[in-house]
Design brief:
200 residues; alpha/beta; Rossmann fold; five-stranded parallel beta sheet; 8 helices; 11% strand
Length: 200
Amino acid sequence: MRYLLLLISFLSCSLPALAARNILVFGDSLSAGYGISLEAAWPSLMQQRLKDSRADYSVINRSVSGETTAGGRSRLPEALARHRPAILILALGANDGLRGLPLEQMQDNLQAMVSQARRSGAQVILVGMRLPPNYGPYASRFETVFARVAQENRLPLVKFLLDGIADQPGLFQADGLHPTAAAQGRILDNVWPVLLPLLR
């Protein structure tokens, strides 16, 4: 009986610790693996790289194609409660920009998600995006939002998720918006150096 009580006590202490080793990827189609297999998407490649480096983390990808920061803001509390991540990789905003949504609203949504994650005990990595030059002054103001949120909250920032990819048409699917499977490793290479210092 005493052994059973000790075992129950051990499990009750260990399960939250294990759950706290989750990395939650919370983005849009660029992280959801749109048009390619889920196994080829960069969050899945991250899981494999973590395994190869013997880092004891589980990657949970809750990215949704077409998601905006407003949609993410409404979904995040449930995801945080369910997965209790140690690290949140917040990769939203591209669809806000492509739709020309108000940047003040986007910044407010990003800030709210950062605050929600921190209250849950998660460390946050913010992932920045850029828009094509034809969006004019809106494009430069859009990019600045990510830098501002990162600076104000002292967050590690991936400056541009598609760095080294955006100018290579051969790495995009026929729609010209979504990277191919061949580009996913390069996307991971953009995220990995920012993630690495946060791993225990």
